[in-house]
Amino acid sequence: MDAGATSTRCVVATLDGEVLGRGRAAGANRNSSGGRPAQALEQALRQALNGIDPAAVASGVVGTAGAAAAGRAEAREAAEEAWRAAGAAGTLRSVTDLEVAFAAGTPDRDGLLLLCGTGAAAVAFRDGTPYRRCDGYGWLLGDEGSAVWQGRQALRAVLRALDGRGPATRLTGPVTEALGADAAADPEEHAQALIRVAYRQPPAALGLLAPLVGRAALDDDAVACEVVYEAAGHLLHALDTAAGAPGERARPVVLAGSVLLTEGPVADLVREGVRLRFRVEPAEARDGAAGAAALAIAALTGAPVAPAVHTRLTAPGNDFVNI
Hints:
By secondary structure, the chain is α/β, with parallel strands linked by helices. Helices cover 44% and strands 17% of the residues. The chain has a domain at 2-109 and 285-313: 2-Layer Sandwich (Nucleotidyltransferase, domain 5). A hairpin with a 5-residue loop joins strand 2 and strand 3 (19-26). Helix 4 crosses helix 7 and helix 8 packs parallel to helix 10 (265-278). The protein is globular, with a radius of gyration of 20 Å. It starts with a strand and ends in a 10-residue tail after the last helix.
């Protein structure tokens, strides 16, 4: 299972990589999703196990956004609660969403991951284990360049435009419409309407504004272009920092998260930056749940999954893009 801030996915597969079932539910990040994480995990797991005997499950891995040291105990507790409720057998391991994303992008054990969806982080892996990490601190303290960060910057820019502190921007109309706020004729009333709506939603919901930034940037809106370039700069700086000195830079480079896996100006700038810095074409992690399945298979067999098994697990057409 891959429990992101916006959605939760589950894959049930055989040891040779054949996918038998898939499930999907709401986000399961305690910090930004709202609701009960265990409930979302259980729903995704039950969907994926439809028609499959839960007692036949031999191993499971749950990768959860926000499950680093600060949130590990809570993430493990939610995963175990869902596992028991669904009647799944076998052993269960709880890891971060970063580990399942890297495993989804490559069967290699060493390399770099840049994730940018609802949150954002850069990680260097050695022997399948994160050993250097940058950001991933959540919407309040970090995740610079992420969808939520871009959405927050867009909303701030609109508010500055409305009260006169900043330039007018084409983001005002789309942001207002996306949030379902009233576009009052009076700028102050308009701003207050945006504030009321924004504070009533979970932080992850601001990530839904990120595509509006990309569209406005393509229309040459100066404010949106500034947000795009700043986002890409934050992401590449984090990746550079995680990679260390040029001589230490690991390959491959795996990209994950909707911002980097969906066509748009931020993704374009980041891909160009990766090619220039690392001289490689970035790999894609389109299904974190498949990465979790790969880790579960490796735990059972005692060896990394073979490339052919990895290819079956992550075959195009069956993928999810997690934001």
